[in-house]
Amino acid sequence: MAALPAIGQTQVDLVIEGGAVVTMDPANRLIPAGAVAVSDGRIVAVDRAETIRQHYTAARVLDAHDKAIMPGLVDTYGHGGHGLIKGILHPRLGWPTNVLYFHATTERWWYTEGLLAALERLRFGVTCGFTVVGATPARMDSPVFAEAQARAAEEVGIRSVVGIGPPDIHVSHLPTPWTGVLWEADQPIRRQFTYEDTVRNCVAVIEKWHAAAEGRVRIALHVPYLLGRLAAHPRFLFTYNDEHVPAMIAAAEETRALADRYGLIIHSHIFRDSVSFALAKFGAERLRWLLGPDVVFAHANGLSEEEVRVLGEAAVSIAVVPFTHENIMYGVCPAVELLRAGANVTISTDGTAPYASYDLFREISRALWAQWVRFNDLNVLPAGKGLRMVTIDAARALGLDQEIGSLEVGKRADIILVNLAQPHLTPQAMLPRLLAFYTSGHDVDTVLVNGKILMEDRTVKTVDMATVLALAREEAAAAFGRFDIAPYLTLDESFWQVSAG
Predict the structure, then answer these.
(1) 358 within 8 A of 122, measured Cβ to Cβ
(2) Share of the chain above pLDDT 90, in %
(3) Distances in whole angstroms, Cα of residue 204 to Cα of each of 133, 196, 208, 268
(4) Which residue blocks in 40-176 are alpha helix, DSSP H?
(5) In this predicted model, what pLDDT tens digit does every residue of 207-237 receive, in sequence order?
(6) CATH architecture of 73-397
(7) Tens digit of each residue's pLDDT (9 = 90 or more) over 451-472
(8) Is the pLDDT confidence value at 1 over 60?
(9) How far from each other are the two terminal CA atoms of the chain, in whole angstroms?
(10) What is the pLDDT of residues 124-178, one digit of tens each?
(11) Distance CA 140, CA 199 (A)
């Protein structure tokens, strides 16, 4: 802790005082009647409220009595676009992601979805979120879609890491040849695009948007399957053989080279058998070069002991998705084993479709419970670690732990206040457990990013929520007019009854 200035000497922009401060710092300090002083967008002091009052004079004092003061949450994995198709899932057809995204959406649609998603995250206390621009392949047939999402995050005021990259060369999730529709004057212009086109578009977005918006918007490389997809998927069947390996290696090496050139993190999906496949086909030395602390793997379901060891030795980050059908298909992510092996494990949402939301608070208990059931042990992954997995550990995964993720002097003032004056959060004898197991995003009262108050008393100050909601309804309806959504909305008797088995 930095030395305090002389009593009454220092003027700051803001003091948040009177609440219970949950720092998430290396010592996991809890300050029952604490305060945080903020100036020029950064934290200048974290201490008892009485001490802060003695040493700082603030232009504004924010009363945090009956509130928890903690770092903003960090979501390490989500998908852009999902906000405007949330809740749509047909038992046979699935959900309309890539076809709708690539053929029925406009730049304005992506900007609107970006506003809606950023607004949802803001109101849930997620001050920084990773967003893939699309479902599994990012929509990078043009730079405009990623740029629209970046503009939206900039306008709402949260911190955003925008994931961009080419479709996978073998499991692309798109019919070949790849085509995308650009709507000009309400007319569809269908254009074919190639892997090389998407890489060029990625470079254009990186050079324009990485570290833009006062550093709040960053770009990451998101490739669907850096090490291939070996786990069987009922909708995307593909079997690898040795002939596919050279192209896989070339794509992975290009991704690593591009990430190194621009200082970006690499984000990808991983499931069982992919690491073992890469170890055998890419070679251990090349795999060590590809992996590292700047690599984030989403899901990581069903991994073998060997795969856990390799990922741990590489100190990669893992974005666990507690609420996903992959838990059914491949088994729950071995989060505890990955942590013990040396990986940095975080908790994420995966976005807002087809059955989830950006309420990251809600995912903490789901993630912990899954491990408790696996080990038959309530202590194997404790609540405090769960809180770190959505704050400082998550910030580390996105390469931002020197700036955000904990309340420490010198860090950016990304801070949330949680309203504790509610029946389900009273009494506060064990506050960290209340935050991990009882709190939802709806309990977030006030949100600051870079020291700027974006929401206060549940009122958003940067955008008009009613306007965003109206725009979202309008753009969703327009896209559904271009893509027949009706078959996905059928509710027959099977929707209301238990299955026959």
Answers:
(1) no
(2) 92
(3) 15, 13, 6, 21
(4) 49-55, 98-103, 107-123, 144-156
(5) 999 999 999 999 999 999 999 999 987 777 8
(6) Alpha-Beta Barrel (3.20)
(7) 999 999 999 999 999 999 999 9
(8) no
(9) 60
(10) 999 999 999 999 999 999 999 999 999 999 999 999 999 999 999 999 999 999 9
(11) 8
Q: At what angle do helices 107-123 and 465-482 cross, to 10 degrees?
A: 140
pLDDT in tens, 20-48: 999 999 999 999 999 999 999 999 999 99
Provide the residue type at 217 as one letter: V
Which sequence spans correspond to the domains of the chain? 73-397
Q: What are phi and psi of 295, to 5 degrees?
A: -110, 130
H, E, C per residue of 324-367 = CCHHHHHCCCCHHHHHHHCCEEEECCCCCCCCCCCCHHHHHHHH
Strand partners, 70: 416
Other Cβ atoms within 10 Å of 482 Cβ, number: 17
User: Considering the chain, what is the average pLDDT of its residues?
Assistant: 96
Q: What is the pLDDT of residues 64-123, one digit of tens each?
A: 999 999 999 999 999 999 999 999 999 888 899 999 999 999 999 999 999 999 999 999
Q: How far is CA 341 from CA 314, 317, 331, 384, in A?
A: 10, 12, 19, 19
Residues 6+ apart with CB under 8 A from 357: 86, 120, 124, 349, 441
Q: Any idea which residue has 């002939």 for tokens? A: 243
CB atoms within 10 A of CB 258: 18
Question: What's the CA gap between 466 and 129, in Å, rounded?
Answer: 22
Structure tokens at 250: 């070339």
Supply 34's token pair: 């604490």
DSSP classification of residue 238: -
CB environment 363-387: b (16+ within 10 A), e (fewer): bbbbbbebbbebeeeeeebebbbbb
Measured distance CA(489)–CA(92) in Å, rounded = 11
In this structure, what is the dihedral angle of CA atoms 413, 318, 227, 355, given to the nearest 10 degrees?
Answer: -90
